[in-house]
Amino acid sequence: MASFPHPFFSSKPNWKWFILTTVLMGATMSALDVSIVNVGMPTMKSDFNVSTSMIAWVAMAYMITLTIFLPFFGRLADMLGRTRLYTIGFVVFTVGSLFCGLAPSAYILIGSRVLQAVGAGLLQANSVAIIVSSFPSSERGKAIGIQGAVQAISMSIGPLVGGILIAAIGWRAIFYVNLPIGLIGVTAALLILPKSEKAAEKERVDYFGTLAFVIGLGGLVLGINGMGTQGINPTIIAYLAIAVVFLVIFAITELRIRFPLIDFNMFKNGLFLLGNVTGMLSYYVLFGILFLMPFYMENVLNFSAGAAGLLLTPVPLSMAIVAPFSGNISDKYGSRIMTTAGMVTASVGCLAMFFLGSATAVWLLIIELVVIGVGMGMFTPPNNSAIMGAAPRDKLSVAGGILNMTRSLGSIFGVAVSSLVLTTLEHNYLFGKGYPVVKHVFSGNNIPVADRDGAFLHGLALAIAIMLGLTIISTVLSIAKKEGEALDSEAVKEFEGI
């Protein structure tokens, strides 16, 4: 176990729950910020008098920075100390939030969001690692489940909190709300978290490999995200080509140096590999659903934006309710049972959504969303716990960075690919109906409602079918983790010094 700042407390068996509470402050702040900012972007656009494509970078800059730097921040934390980097993350995120609130222009706001993302990356890369190093294996899933529940609740209330703050004070308040949380978090981190443990051997930072990884992954994120909004064009192909070249350079570099950014040997552990793959696929499905459903509710069912947002809350709320129980069960019976059950449940939800039509009953839609949320809540905590349990003690933060990076990539792929599939099939459907040039399906006033709905549902069906296929693949991979459970036990024994 880690050594604590105050010897009096280090012997207290319940001190680990104070550590978890401190970590939850960072989880709350970063998760709340993801959903709360989206509500304010239309107001920011009007305030700064900029284009929609420009204000979209308020979200894009944060997402890209967070995704590409997570493994690097994890590597630094394993070298320099997790608590030290986690505390710095609180400070950087809080300062970034202050700069966002004070931003006099859209450019300064976007730059401040990059700073915010750096802080969020330092928090996310270390949060799960700190939990794992502070809890015994018998309580690890429960603790990670509680963290997942708090994150889900924070994301679900973000739009509501954001709407209230914008209406009462203005969009800058959605950033200022982070300041008190951040100050309390920094204080708690200094007083409560275990002392930082540096690597036993002095290691060097792989700057060249890190640069190649950042460029390669950045190109991949830009290419996939752009493909969802622009389709496939020369710019997107160039991004993807850059990604392939630099990620290959990164892989070759990592295999040849002594202290790599990412130790590929970790992926020889089947549980670690399959856990990250299924985690990415699960986030593809989750964020694909959260992306598509507002369009379906507003354009086909004719709900208001507020009603659509309210109808989506069953997903994160179901996750929040189920996650702690799922984590607790996985502590007793292993991760394989709950991850498999979670993916089977999500498959049922996707199968039901495949049959959505132009007159779906609201109660039925809510049930389907609850089933998706329950499935994800069952799957995520035990999967995260198993991944971290399979990682070596001296690479916990890198493992946490990889875990969060793969989930972030899954969310990006889920939105981008779903958008591309939906748009492509909409246009193909309308072309067959005699409408060859339609830029925005639901803004074409000359298109009959039946044809517009038919075009959307045609694209939606394939997008959902892809998600159904991914949940089935994830189910099979979860079942295949049987050998990984033994590897996980060995890793836990090594971790706990048994």
What is the tally of helical segments? 19
Number of strands: 0
User: Roughly how many Å is the radius of gyration?
Assistant: 22 Å
End-to-end span in angstroms? 12 Å
Shape: globular
What count of domains describes the coordinates?
A: 3
Q: Determine the structural class based on helices, strands and strand pairing.
A: mainly alpha
Which runs of at least 5 residues are low in confidence (pLDDT < 50)?
A: 1-11, 483-498
String of helices and strands: HHHHHHHHHHHHHHHHHHH
Measured by DSSP, the beta-strand proportion falls in: under 5%
CATH class call of the largest domain: Mainly Alpha
CATH topological fold name of the largest domain: Growth Hormone, Chain: A
The description of the largest β-sheet is: none
* Helix amount: over 70%
Q: Quote the average pLDDT.
A: 81
Determine the CATH superfamily of the largest domain: MFS general substrate transporter like domains
CATH architecture of the largest domain: Up-down Bundle
What's the short version?
This protein has 498 residues and is mostly helical.
How would you describe this protein?
It is a single chain. By secondary structure, the chain is an all-alpha fold. It folds into three domains: 12-202, MFS general substrate transporter like domains (Growth Hormone, Chain: A, Up-down Bundle), CATH 1.20.1250.20; 206-258; 266-498, Up-down Bundle (Growth Hormone, Chain: A). The protein is built from 19 helices and no strands. Helix 10 packs parallel to helix 17.
